Amino acid sequence: MTIYRGTIFDVAEDAFPGARLRADDDAGLRVVDGIITERAAFTAVRAAHPDDDVVDLRPGIVLPGFVDTHVHFPQVRIIGGLGMPLLQWLDECALPEEERLASVEYARGVAADFVRGLASAGTTTSLVFGSHFAGAVDVLFEEVARVGLRVTAGLVVSDRSLPEPLLTTPERSYEEASALAQRWHRPEGRTRYAVTPRFSYSAGDDLLDACHRVLKDVPGSWFTSHLNENPAEIAAVGAKFPTAHHYLDTYDRHGLVGRASVFAHNVHPTDGELELLGRSGAAVSHCPTSNSALGSGLFPLRRHLDHGVHVALGSDVGAGTGFSLFKEGLQSYFVQQLLGGEGTSLTSADLLHLATRSGAAALGLGEVVGDLSVGKQFDALWLCPREGGPLDVGLRHAASPEQALAKAFTLAGPADVAATWVGGDHVTSR
Ligand code: GUN
Ligand code: ZN
Please, what CATH class does the domain formed by 2-64+370-429 belong to? Predict the structure, then answer.
């Protein structure tokens, strides 16, 4: 039994935008078997449990672990390939690196870099785009299980329009996905399987049918892919699926749009697509730094919310510029500011909602993680900047918890994350 002592910030209710920050100064969280069993003033929790261990997380702020709903495992080493739009960036940056994961030895090194990147940024739960190679996906899950993160991931599949080594067939994709799910899909544990066609530009109808079969045959599995990221990509998808009503229809007509689906980007949706997303309960992963770095466009958050579409946050490493959801939160704020009257003004509590509760809900884990309430898993990060640095100065001079949180989103990076826990297990320290 452990009592964690510190200043705790989280968002405990589902209002977005208009999220309300819950900020408790000198609080105690009692954790038993990884689950928060009490949350009150530290002195009260301590008095009730004088023999428990105490972990003192003062100074700084304890936040719920971040939830990244779109991040690519094979791309950790190519972050920073600036200056190209999506299709050129795929050809010149992403796909050559992804071919290297045919070597399990190479993939092992990438998996270590990737999992360390997530954990040290305070990301405790993620929906991960795996690799086109089943051996590399095994290696990813092995590393995730060793470190103890919550990860939903799967084999990335394509059967056209990519370099030949990255292609599969519907039959092989079904067999490899089923075998991976057998080994790693544990809906009550920390690893789950995600059916992952790369995007319908590189997936024909038979392959998407095979994806649907895996989704049906693996109860509790998740679905993820890309959607409406870039105008040239959207036009190319239209040319490959001449009878589809729109990009989302290329997935929907194979039964791949539902409550367990997460679509990355959706920067250029039609109203019909937003209606379908809202009606089906599918979520959109908004990837702000990626959209800016690739020049993909300004995310229409207001239109998503008007259609009742669930929106969460994704780093989209490696088109995105790093693992930190502080940075993604800040960039999402910038983009909404730039949209002026068409944007949605986001508060610091809204950014925290996006980085935690929204992601947990998008992944069907809203009862398990996303805030630090009694009954939830103790998945948390300790934000503790180095003394005298800009974040330390900012936090010392914040006039309110909301201001302190805004300073955190503005100034914090992975170097300010002093420790991360998942289910009460300490997974990393600075
Ligand atoms: N669309 C298809 N593949 C990718 C990818 O790796 N990154 C991004 N941002 N978009 C994609
Ligand atoms: Zn992506």
Answer: mainly beta
